[in-house]
Amino acid sequence: MQDSIQQQKVLKIVCPDVAGLITKITAICCQYKFNILKNNQFTDNKTSYFFMRAELAGCFYHQDNFFKDLDILLPIGSQYFLKDIDRRKIVILVGQEAHCLGDLLVKSAYGELDVEISAVISNHKRLSQLVHSFDVPFIFLKNEGLTRLEQEKNITDSITLYQPDYIVLAKYMRVLTPEFLRRYPNKIINIHHSLLPAFVGSRPYHQAYARGVKIIGATAHYVTNQLDAGQIIMQDAIHIDHSYSVEDMIRLGHDVEKNVLSQALNQILTHRVFLNGNRTVLL
């Protein structure tokens, strides 16, 4: 009976580029009677690496044998993943700003973003009522009187209760320690209110105003040990001019920030993001 259960999964492959890869991969999918619903691929000519994302439909009861055959088929140094298409779980860390958090709560609640928000963790109480109005657990963890490591241990303990697929920093505004980041490699996504790599760190709108920029924007990126230097997932921008104050830039920038964050999260949840050194590939 298990053989007859139809499912949909996403096949992701990263490997050294060689001739005939697509033909070989599609042939083995046909062998296992996987119907390819969608397929995208990209070859990085500078690194000679091949990236492929395929949406498959079929019976995956024998996927271990499928993996063994892929091992034989693909070049040495290949990586491949068969991802379930289901509702993913996130935990959100937030400070006092509501725009990114509120956008994610609304989109999750009304099906615009296929994600379950398991909990919201904050070092401030300000947004508790907003979170509770969506029947999502709100966890307040104070900073006062605690070292950074003690406070992060409390965060880790809370995250562990929910076992999320990803952790989203929706304007959390605190730098996380290397010890914390090592627990969640490539699992923490941040929204930064500038077009990175420009205006790293705090008060980027003030930095932008001081330089008289004519474009402001936001960047969603993976979090690494280097501040605001993780691989960029999504960016967007709007045009401004000399008449805009810092307050004008912040107000307009909020819309860009929330849109970039939700778009980037959607790309991650649908398994479209590939790491490629210091860059990302989106398929």
Automatic annotation (TrEMBL):
Formyl transferase N-terminal domain location: 89-265
InterPro entries membership: ACT-like_dom_sf, Formyl_transf_N, Formyl_transf_N_sf, PurU
Enzyme category, top tier: hydrolase
Reactions this protein catalyses: (6R)-10-formyltetrahydrofolate + H2O = (6S)-5,6,7,8-tetrahydrofolate + formate + H(+)
GO molecular function: formyltetrahydrofolate deformylase activity
Any one GO biological process: 'de novo' IMP biosynthetic process
UniProt superkingdom: Bacteria
Assigned EC number: 3.5.1.10
Pathways involved: Purine metabolism; IMP biosynthesis via de novo pathway; formate from 10-formyl-5,6,7,8-tetrahydrofolate: step 1/1
Keywords: Hydrolase, One-carbon metabolism, Purine biosynthesis
Active-site residues, Swiss-Prot/TrEMBL: 228
UniProt KW Hydrolase keyword: yes
NCBIfam families: PRK06027.1, PurU
Family, per entry: Belongs to the PurU family.
Purpose of the protein: Catalyzes the hydrolysis of 10-formyltetrahydrofolate (formyl-FH4) to formate and tetrahydrofolate (FH4).
Name of this protein: Formyltetrahydrofolate deformylase
